[in-house]
Structure formats: C-alpha cells, structure tokens
Amino acid sequence: MTAVTFDVDKLAAEYNDKTPSDILALAIEHFENLSISFSGAEDVVLIDMAVQIKPDINVFSLDTGRLHPETYQFIERVRNHYNIQIDLMSPDQKQLEKFVQDKGLYSFYQDGHQECCGIRKVMPLRRALSTLDAWITGQRQDQSPDTRQGIPVMQKDNAFSSADRTLIKFNPLAGWTSQQVWQYIRENDVPFNELHSKGFASIGCEPCTRAVLPNQHEREGRWWWEEATKKECGLHVDNIKK
Question: What pLDDT does residue 41 have?
C-alpha cells in the first residue's frame, strides 16, 4: 500500500488507543519502504518492538558531527545488540564548511539554533526521507506542552511531503509517558545512552544539551537560552503552532 491509498486520518482515530506494537505492526504491514528515526531512548524502545515483527527493520540516525562521545558509543551498542544496520546521515560537507567559516562554531548562542540545525539535521533528514514512503518517530505528547501535546499516533508529514509524494509519519509512543518508556527499558533490558545516568533527560548535540535538575521538564535541557515555544530543531516543524 502507498501513502496515497493509506487513509491516515481514519486509521489515526481507530488506532489512537492501540498499543505501540499494534501501530508498528500496521506501519510495517502497509509500508515496505519505511524506516525508524533513531536518536534517543524512545527510539530504541521502538526498535526493540519492531525487530520482533521485522528483524531487519530499516533504521537511520542523524550524525551531526557534534554529538557526545557517549551518544556515538550508544549508536554502536544498539547496532550490535539488535544486529541491525543503522544508516548514518551526515551534513553536506561544503555547506557545513561555509557555515562554520562564516559564523564560527557557536553562532547559535547569539542568533538561535535554527540555522545550525537546518544544516546539521534538517537537510540530512530531508535526504533520508526523500527515499521513503513512511517513517517512525519516538515523539511523545508529554515531551513538550508547547509543541508536542497534540501529536497523533500517525499523520501526514506536511513538512517533508512534496506535491507528488505524501509522506506518512508514525508516532507509536505519542500517548506514552516518560515513566512508561523507562519501565519498558528496565523490564526488557533495552540499551540506553549513558548520559541518562548523568542527569541528561533529552539528548541532542553536545553544545545544546545539558543535564536537568530534579523536577525540571526534560526539554529544559535543550536550547536553554531560547524561548520554550522555539524548542524544535526542525525535524518536527509541523508541531510548532503558527
């Protein structure tokens, strides 16, 4: 089945109360050409569920060049633990070199993270998604009350679709809480980033991520110098209310 014949609105309502495994099974059944976007704890939970349905599930990850050493080690542990291939998507080298030459390595502290994220994350993601009919993310509604509260379990990805191609995005963990994610990780011995044991809740690039204090929301450790309403890097730009 293609995105054109996949009634995403009807199925989103039907599957709203289904389990993440049910939603993954639907995605895998209907889309051969799909992939899991992997970076954090939620994504590995999805990989753990998905390999039980399709052991050779496609997975990709964005290598921005600014990740923590622990994150690179984490990627390798996941690759080896599940015996899967993880396609690493890197920034365009010429575009990145010009950006760094013109603006330096830390311009985002002065003028915001959007331009840097655009080069290091959004453009590589666009390349990855241009070859897919559907992708799977670990977004949760409780990750951000400003940008993610209303995300459905599946949707048309208006940000990365084109005039002749509709891309479907699955968010199987949309209704889960952080507590449910970590309960699953503990009960199923799922690998996780060592930074989580050091107070990091939401992990991105090293310069833009810091540990959070007790009772702080997990997204407060990301781009902490900016307004809360701007705390999306562009991968899920549809979440930002216009």
Answer: 94
Beginning with the edge strand found earlier in the chain, give each strand of the sheet holding 86-89 in spatial order.
Answer: 86-89, 59-62, 34-37, 134-136, 168-170, 154-156
pLDDT at 227: 72
The answer to whether 193 touches 203, Cβ cutoff 8 Å, is yes
The tokens describing 53, both together, are 């349905």
233 is catalytic: yes
> What is the pLDDT at residue 142?
83
Q: Helix, strand, or coil here: 89? A: strand
**CA–CA separation, 33 vs 101, rounded Å?**
38
Q: Determine the Cα–Cα distance for residues 123 and 92; give it in Å rounded to an integer.
A: 8
Count structural domains, the chain.
1
In 3-state terms, the chain is what percent helix, strand and coil (to 5)?
45, 10, 45
pTM for this structure?
Answer: 0.89
pLDDT of residue 20: 98
Domain CATH code at residue 94: 3.40.50.620
Task: For residue 232, give the amino acid letter.
Answer: E
pLDDT < 70 stretches in the chain? 1-4, 144-148, 228-242
What stretches of the chain show up as alpha helix (H) in DSSP?
8-14, 20-30, 41-50, 69-82, 93-103, 108-111, 114-117, 123-129, 178-188
Q: Note whether 204 and 221 are within 8 A (CB).
A: no
Residue 238 resides in a domain:
no
**Integer Cα distance of 236 and 169 in angstroms:** 10
